[in-house]
Amino acid sequence: MTAAATRPRQRNLTATVLALLWPTLLLICLIPGVLSNLFAPLSAGISPETGDRPLWQLTLTHLGMVFGAELIVLLIGVPLAVFVTRPDRAALLRLTETITGLGQTVPTIAILALAVPTLGLGLPPTVLGLVLYGLVPVVSNGIAGLLAVDKGVMDAARGVGMTPFQRLMRVELPLSLPVLMAGIRTSTVYNVGTATIGAALGAGGLGSLIINGLSQQNTGLVLIGAVLAGLLALSLDALLELFSPNGR
């Protein structure tokens, strides 16, 4: 077997291992008594504002923020990309591309801070910030994928009598899916990191470890929070890679 042929298998194996790494670690933490001595010091570093929640609850809160935001991102981003890429909406397409390009330059903390006066502290401003930040790669990749669909294929679809909706569902979206999935993976990884900042607004999650570590000058807590958030991002990215077309 050639090296080129083995590379996809190696990527899939690596993705599978990374995807299973975090769930396995979390499962171990959930087993009563297992590793309790290792994670017991964490409770001393969690402030009363977090409810003294154990590590697995902080993780589930973090996942909930990311998954909730990504669901909203998909419900908004994919239809928006489809809407602006229709042939009669060139001006709107250019405007959307400009806005998404500018959105990549806005600091994350600024987005969260601007949401606080309207929504207050806690989950609402954090999720809103994650949605706004996560929309950028999904919309931009969705537009790029849809515009890259071969015109000859579209002409052939029209030739066999497909309606615009059928062409969208059977031709455009399937062919643009690899590019769109790349945007979804990027958005998810971005938001795993961005969600840690939400702890400063009282949203909880793994960022609570980092915030408390900084306030107590406890480098260990900061490292634990950062490493676990990094592992979570890698695991989610690897999991999404498994569902990507051609494993890429």
From TrEMBL:
PROSITE patterns: ABC_TM1
ABC transmembrane type-1 domain segment(s): 59-240
Membrane-spanning segments: 60-84, 105-124, 130-149, 189-214, 220-240
Membrane topology reported for the UniProt record: Multi-pass membrane protein
Pfam families per UniProt: BPD_transp_1
Top-rank taxon, per record: Bacteria
Alphabetical keyword list: Membrane, Transmembrane, Transmembrane helix, Transport
Subcellular location: Cell membrane; Membrane
InterPro entries the UniProt entry points to: ABC_transp_perm/SBD, MetI-like, MetI-like_sf
Main location: membrane
Family per record: Belongs to the binding-protein-dependent transport system permease family.
The protein's name: ABC transporter permease
Gene source species: Deinococcus arenicola
